[in-house]
Design goal:
Strand order of the largest sheet: 2-1-5-4-3
Oligomer: single chain
Number of helices: 14
């Protein structure tokens, strides 16, 4: 190699290196580099194909293309497959190729697309950085059908510089993208902390995550022991959804797959050794989110979900404490006043026992005071449920005794009852006893409790007057029973009829507790 050629080569490499270091915009950088390369080498046309996977490529930069390749917004450079691309995808193009007939130009000539400026061949050099390949550099000139070894060596050096710059830029873009995703993660964390209603948490959390991360969809599924429903991936079946969730739960890690032309991630929400739920997120194929982001998001979701549960528990405790305070106040004030009124009426009745009308008046007054006292005690019991440590049946027997009723009880089976289910059973049984006392005209009630590992069933039956359930089914008390049961995925059935008494059947699934 002459000193002049060597000097030209070094000058070219220096200019290219300086150009590559000026920008972090990949496509802009490639266009500038290509222009400089053609200017220094005296070649007239060049183009760069980038290909990340087999079957996909993009013409990222071009310069000096003949008119035949520029028609219809450079459609010949965007569509179809040529020999250099095919060899690149097959792994046969590993170094600079001296000469290669251009299929795109041949097609342009045969289809008479326009002037090719006398270009028929081009040199092809793979863009590489180590073992990693990014695409091809193609250069050409009119009538040039051969490149010297020195020219190919120079093109190989330039291609190596370009490949190294591409890798640097991709690393830079990946770091920038990673930083942006962590910013989104921070925003998501702060937004999730604001969600305090556990009942609406899944829907609201999924909506916020979808918006913040730009997912095509997001669905949050919280595992419960009483619900069998499952959010389904849009445009995919429930079977597919269950399969990916099962795999995610088994691996206890993020699982990626593809369905309905989108990438799907299933992220288990881990709480200790248990899986509290899952986040299903869809994204288009171009979206690249690091797995660590999904894992961190799962942690934030689990924490926010637990906080929402604790918030609801705090609210329930506050309501219970307020009920207890009101019950104490009623007991210490109104109940004592009614009791004093009853004693006063009794004393006055004894004083005026020989005056018939006055005695009758005080008897009525005493009776009203005793009735009001009994109702007040009943209200206090409703505000402050009796201790259920002895079980629902024991509590119902005691409550029935306060109403002047005898509760005949039967218990079958031994199994723990979740706290919420136990309190709901108590409330339903309480309402059944109230109805029997007020409307049934009976003092005998039968309560049957059956426990299994899967469910619990309470039957409260009286032999009173009964009623037509079709006419009274929407009364506040009966409606309240049904609504309480539905909140815990239970059922309430009411069987009754004139003269045959009333039977209330409440049943709840309790597998694993609530």
């Amino acid at each position: 190699m002459s000193s002049e050629l060597r000097e030209n080569e070094l000058t070219t490499l220096k200019v290219i290196a300086e150009t590559l270091n000026r920008s972090n915009d990949l496509h802009a950088m490639l266009s500038v580099v290509l222009d400089r390369l053609l200017e220094i080498t005296g070649l007239s046309a060049g183009w760069i194909f980038l290909s990340e996977s087999k079957g996909e490529y993009v013409c990222s930069a071009d310069s000096g293309l003949p008119p035949a390749l520029e028609i219809e917004e450079k459609k010949p450079m965007r569509e179809g497959v040529c020999w250099c691309i095919e060899k690149f995808w097959s792994g046969r193009l590993t170094s600079a190729v001296n000469i290669m007939e251009c299929k795109r130009l041949e097609d342009s000539i045969s289809l008479k697309r326009g002037d090719t400026k006398g270009i028929t061949h081009h040199a092809t050099v793979p863009l590489k950085a180590g073992e990693e390949t990014f695409g091809l550099l193609n250069v050409a000139a009119p009538g040039k059908i051969k490149f010297t070894e020195e020219e190919l060596a120079l093109l190989s050096s330039v291609a190596f510089q370009i490949g190294t710059a591409i890798k640097r830029m991709k690393l830079y873009e990946a770091q920038q993208h990673r930083a942006e995703e962590f910013v989104r993660l921070d925003v998501a964390s702060r937004e999730l902390k604001k969600l305090n209603d556990i009942d609406t948490f899944p829907e609201q959390a999924a909506h916020k995550i979808k918006a913040i991360f730009g997912f095509t969809f997001a669905a949050l599924y919280i595992k419960t022991n009483t619900a069998e429903s499952l959010s389904v991936i849009p445009e995919a079946g429930e079977e597919f959804t269950r399969e990916i969730l099962t795999e995610a739960e088994k691996k206890r890690d993020v699982v990626f797959t593809e369905e309905a032309d989108q990438k799907v991630a299933a992220i288990p929400l881990l709480s200790g050794e248990d899986t509290a739920g899952f986040l299903l997120a869809g994204r288009d194929r171009s979206c690249k989110i690091p797995g660590e982001i999904f894992s961190a998001l799962a942690g934030h979701l689990t924490l926010a979900m637990e906080n929402a549960k604790l918030h609801k528990m705090r609210q329930e405790i506050s309501v219970m404490e307020e009920r207890n305070r009101l019950a104490r106040d009623l007991h210490d004030s109104v109940t004592q006043t009614l009791f004093s009124l009853s004693l006063t009426a009794k004393g006055a009745k004894n004083i005026y026992k020989h005056e018939a009308e006055i005695k009758e008046t005080f008897e009525d007054l005493q009776q009203m005071a005793q009735t009001a006292l009994a109702e007040m005690r009943s209200l206090i019991w409703q505000l402050k449920p009796p201790g259920l440590e002895d079980g629902v049946i024991a509590a119902l027997k005691k409550y029935g005794s306060n109403l002047g009723m005898q509760v005949h009880a039967h218990v079958e089976g031994v199994a723990p009852i979740p706290e919420k289910v136990e309190e709901t059973l108590w409330r339903i049984g309480q309402e059944a006893l109230n109805n029997a006392c007020k409307h049934g005209d009976t003092s005998n009630v039968f309560a049957d409790l059956k426990l299994t590992k899967e469910n619990v069933r309470l039957i409260v039956k009286d032999n009173g007057r009964g009623f037509n359930p079709e006419k009274k089914f929407r009364s506040a008390g009966l409606t309240g029973m049904i609504e309480r049961a539905e909140e815990l995925h239970g059922t309430v059935k009411i069987n009754s009829g004139p003269g045959i008494g009333t039977e209330v059947i409440a049943e709840f699934p309790v597998k694993g507790g609530v």
